[in-house]
Structure prediction request, 524 residues.
Amino acid sequence: NSLANLLRFSGPPGKKACCFTGFTPSAVRAVTMLCVVMAGRILFRSHDRLNEISLAALLILFIEPLYLFHIGFQLSFITVLGLCIAAEQMEQKRSRDITWKEMITESLRFSLYASLCSFPMVAYYFYYISPVGILANLVVIPLSGILLGLGILCGVAGMLWTPLGVFAAGSVYAILKGFELLCECLLRLPFACILTGRPSELMILLCYGMLFFWLKCRYRKGSWKGMIPICGALFLAVFSNQLFRKETTVTFLDVGQGDAAVIHTWDEKTYLVDGGGQYGKDFGENVGMTVILPYLEYLGVSEVDAAFLSHPDNDHMTGLLEILEEIPVKEVYLAEYPYLVTKELGFLKEMLEKYPTSLYTMDNRSSSSDETWNCLAPIEGIIFQNGDDNDGSMVLKYETGGTEVLFTGDISSEAERLLVQNDADLSADILKVSHHGSQYSSSEAFLQKTEAKAAVISCGEKNIYGHPHQKTMERLQKAGMEIYRTDESGSILVKIRGNGTFQIETMTERKPLYERVKETMEKW
Prediction:
């Protein structure tokens, strides 16, 4: 019976342990490995850590294959592999009478190897790595066993007499507060958190190839020669865009009923056009924090070179204000137009005075400081009498690699008519459709003047305004444009290559295969 329980994945010992921790992949990994080790001892099999890790992974994946794509599964196994390598080297070098110096060295090795093995996966999922965790582990790991023992003691004491359990829990509380204080102190150190962005799958594989080659083979004679091709391949993977592809991405983010676009160039410059904003959400919890900032971190961007605000409506401005509070923005561009004085506009001016950001205004005579952006509207000297600030929106054209993208803010057909009449250069390959697809924008004359191949509509799913309007959709189709909508396809990603061609992808197309399979199975 004991052997059967050990070999069964959901045997009583493992089941109780997993229930206690909520059946997380890391807990399942720990219980499965324990069962594998104990089963091996009962069967008088020799101890081999790599085989134990592999068998545990196969058993788990046999029952739940999708665990392979779970961050808890991946981090748990890769970290344990690093610990096993450290244990192997420790056994080879450890003397019979271990000294305090050797104990500290071994603890540091365990912490270092575990952290190094987890860094690529942590960067892939969280876009940051924290080197100070190596130091924190020197304190946390030795006290974890004591903490576990005290926790069990508190539980037993609480079952006998509740006040005794509460009294005993004071020691657990003291250790946990110590952990918290330690982490707060370490996070104040320079380079406590390093923004990496999300590395590609190829870069992850090359990082692990280089890492395990160094951990396992660095003491062998001439082993450095084997590192040269791996390091060279990793260098090319990291800098291939700057050296060869020179691909710029224009991403129209899905911010609901609003506008926000991020341009990330091949030479590592970042621009933000509007920032979106959802009504009813507090400042600090709006799309700037929940959508734009995570995407910038995904790109590895720690500062924005320039931000353009088409006009000061909440659904274009709120997210930008949140970004101003979080990361440096070198330049901010506003339209040269007499907008109505509102509380939001006053807040914007206060924010710009608060931070060391250069402020510029633009009209149809202006371009950005690096001359990659040209402003087509507002037209100098023209003020719309309807009192609608939407018609005072900046109309911007961005050009790179021979591809032109036209951003139109929220202008109406009246502002479009004046642009056509003023013979503005509206030609573009990609059009960001004005005012979220309103029926009062995107006139036939304007669309014919742009001659765009693709149109992007940024609007909220089932929004109360009925955007995009059916008449607007018909005019876009009549103009021969391929239409992309954020409410249907999520964020829209445009990849502009250096040879002048471009490719458009949607978030629904970029979902990993396992996510699409899982969603389909859940619908069934």
About this structure: Residues 144 and 175 are 9 Å apart (CA to CA). Residues 133-160 form the longest helix (28 residues).
